[in-house]
Amino acid sequence: MGRSAQHCRQRREEMRGKILNASISYFARHGFSGTRMGDLARSIGIAPGTIYLYFPSKEALLREICQSVQEEMLPALRVLTAPSGPVANQLLRLSSYVLTRLCGQVDCAARVVLTAQMVHGAGSAADGCRTEWEGLCQDTSLLVARGQQEGSVVPGQPEALADYYWGAAFLCARRRLFYPQAELIDARTLARVLLCDRALEGLKADGRIY
Known about the structure:
disordered C terminus, mainly alpha, single chain
């Protein structure tokens, strides 16, 4: 009896994870308002009522997705934007991670696209994710300001340049999500959004182009 109960619990956890993972891409492609639970269920290959056995509403499902993004993706990015050596090197490492890890895989690209949607909408379900994203943008603007002091980052308002950088990263993720076979830009090109030509040439001479 104990083994049977454990088996049922495991099956439920597997189904819950399947619904959660599939919903990330579906929400990213269709948006929160454009997602209907019946259509989502059919895309997963389950009965329409099955989702409600695990998530009582679309808002509850989105809240779970927000929680996973908040805990898994955004903290890792904040670590990469924390002070760590010369800014030019750090921006190349960050850009390489963004393109290979976040934009290089369709499921990760979906998280990036969905995060952008949640930051600009989705109501109170996205409050935690929105707060974490604001922290990431603040960290990036501080990184930009430090790079400007070093002479490696282009002049401009740090907050605006940080938004510009993440906007470019979002477009890369969106391209991967909707056109999986399309080529993406490389890390050097993404870093060029922020780095001045002298810094890029210096990194190239040192062989540190990712």
